[in-house]
Design goal:
It comes from Paenibacillus chungangensis. The chain is of the alpha/beta class and about 525 residues long. The protein has 13 helices and 29 strands. The strands form 7 sheets. Strands 2, 3, 6, 7, 10, 11, 19, 20 and 21 form a 9-stranded mixed beta sheet that branches. Strands 13-14-15-17-16 form a 5-stranded mixed beta sheet. A 5-stranded mixed beta sheet has the order 23-29-28-25-26. Helix 6 runs parallel beside helix 8 and helix 7 packs antiparallel against helix 8.
């Protein structure tokens, strides 16, 4: 058994808690209709609740956890979960891929000691099982619930033996950056199994809500135990706690598994009706139905005579047009689908790019409304289900909070933030800026004044222009250095205003503006769409 020396009590400690599937709606529901979250609420008295936090697209764990880890969207991380790449004629599938540095790797680069419990998005990417300097810890039994994972982290805090692979280690003091992941909420909402004793798989929609609420209340109690361990060891006053998630969740499928003989509408897939509807639009544009292929799995390829490819992922359908006549038909397709009972919302290619996706992702994404789905199974879903591959507001609206040292106290912030702001905030709390190539920004509205970065406000209002030369203007702290899309532009004068020209290409242009001052950086992203003059008429 070995002992690992770390920073002494009194040094900063950042605890990153990631509860997969924690929709903001679940927090509201538990605190209005169930027993509440007293430990979260106590932390909020010493911190900040962000009421307008959002995840990205696609709202799927593999892709969004990498966005959280690196502070950037899929266009930069390279992880879009699954999509059809038209040029290569193949459905691309991703697991844990991430082209960017993550927050743990950045911390190690800055000589910050790190450790994590079941934080799989850092496994072999900063944390390693068997590595006593950068330990990846897991519960001895899997699957495990949040409470069991908290038990492991409390051992670290108390300096008790912790199993790592085939040996045990003792931390004389805990690392400065601790991360813990829990998939309990996501698991019970998917409704395949439960994670805490006394619960059972839901048989109807009310039991589904009850399971989610009971799970969150149990997790809240376990979070309270974790905070109590920090207090007992005298570390709480120097600890910053970040609690967030990768996505929310909504119901789909049947409302009760006992009603499957009635084939209630939500139980049956809407994929084939949507496919037929889109195919029929071809009659008005090319004199025949569009030839459509449904490609639901990675590695699949389209036939040479296919006009449209649909990649269905549970509650959303990603649509790529291969025939030249399909693109003029997009408004017609959208109009037809919007009249359908299962239509929830949609995003076009330009909107998808502005959501941080590569131009190759899709030409159109259709998202169903609850309880409808696009599962490629004609037999339907006769169970009570939950999923998050959706553009639904309840999926996008997530829970996020900060608490403890260096955090503003008792604040409710309603400004829009996103998951890509988490990693830069963790870095700021740890005493450095990062990770490298992050496009999110530290959450200054949740930090005490001495922790905030330079002021940066963008005053440019045009999002559509008809020239390839554009002006980006704004206000920033006097003396701040302005960089736009990686190009150094200059320092802000005493007036605090700046205006710089940039070159743009046809189509959607992402413009990343950075203001650096005093060793800290603030970022803002805007999008400018360059159109031909003929498109203005």
């Amino acid at each position: 058994m070995s002992r690992q020396p770390f920073a002494q009590p009194g040094s900063r400690l950042v605890l990153y808690v990631n509860w997969d599937g924690f929709a903001y709606e679940w927090y509201r529901l538990v605190n209005t209709s169930y027993g509440g979250t007293p430990h979260i609420n106590a932390l909020l008295q010493d911190g900040v609740l962000f009421t307008n936090a959002s995840t990205g697209v696609p709202a799927i764990t593999g892709a969004m956890q990498q966005c959280l880890a690196s502070g950037a969207w899929p266009v930069d991380t390279g992880n879009c979960y699954r999509y059809y790449h038209a040029e290569n004629n193949v459905v691309m599938q991703f697991a844990r891929e991430n082209k960017l540095e993550n927050i743990v790797e950045a911390a190690v680069r800055h000589k910050v000691r790190v450790a994590g419990v079941n934080a799989w998005y850092f496994e072999n990417r900063g944390l390693f099982e068997g590595n006593e300097q950068q330990p990846y810890l897991r519960t001895e039994s899997m699957p495990s619930n949040f409470g069991q994972r908290v038990d492991e982290l409390i051992k670290v805090i108390h300096g008790e033996p912790v199993r790592m692979g085939d040996k045990h280690i003792i931390f004389d003091d805990i690392p400065q950056f601790l991360s813990i992941y829990a998939d309990d909420i996501d698991t019970v909402a998917h409704n395949g199994r439960v994670t805490y004793d006394g619960l059972k798989v839901a048989g109807n929609i009310q039991e589904w809500y009850d399971n989610i609420a009971q799970t969150i209340m149990r997790m809240d109690q376990d979070l309270g135990r974790l905070v109590a361990a920090l207090r007992r060891t005298g570390r709480y006053e120097h600890s910053s706690i970040v609690l967030t998630t990768d996505h929310g969740m909504i119901h789909y499928g049947a409302h009760s598994k006992e009603q499957h003989h009635e084939a209630e509408p939500g139980a049956l897939t809407s994929l084939y009706d949507m496919t037929a509807c889109i195919a029929n639009v071809g009659l008005r544009h090319i004199g025949r139905k569009f030839a459509i292929e449904i490609l639901p799995a990675g590695g699949m390829q389209a036939k040479s005579d296919t006009d449209i490819v649909i990649v269905p992922i549970m509650l959303q359908a990603q649509i790529t047009f291969l025939h030249p006549a399909c693109h003029p038909a997009i408004p017609d397709i959208i109009e037809q689908i919007k009249s359908k009972w299962y239509y929830g919302t949609h995003l076009t290619s330009d909107q998808l790019m502005k959501a941080g996706l590569p131009s190759t992702y899709a030409d159109l994404v259709i998202s169903s409304c609850p309880p409808y789905h696009f599962i490629p199974d004609p037999h339907g879903c006769y169970a009570v289900g939950g999923n998050h591959a959706s553009l639904d507001p309840q999926v996008k609206h997530i829970f996020t909070m900060l608490s403890g040292a260096n955090i503003a106290k008792g604040v409710v912030c309603d400004k829009p933030i996103s998951i890509i702001d988490i990693a830069p905030t963790l870095a700021r709390l740890l005493g450095f800026e990062g990770p490298q190539h992050a496009t999110g920004t530290a959450l200054d509205d949740g930090l005490q004044n001495h922790m905030q970065g330079p002021q940066l406000t963008i005053t440019t209002t045009e999002d559509t222009i008809y020239t390839t030369v554009a002006t980006v203007s704004g206000k920033a702290s006097s003396g701040a250095t302005i960089t736009i899309n990686g190009e150094h532009k200059g320092d802000v004068d005493e007036s605090g205003s700046f205006a710089y020209t940039i070159n743009c290409a046809a189509g959607v242009n992402r413009v990343l503006i950075e203001a650096a001052y005093g060793g800290r950086t603030s970022r803002r992203t805007i999008y400018m769409t360059v159109k031909d003059e003929m498109q203005s008429t």
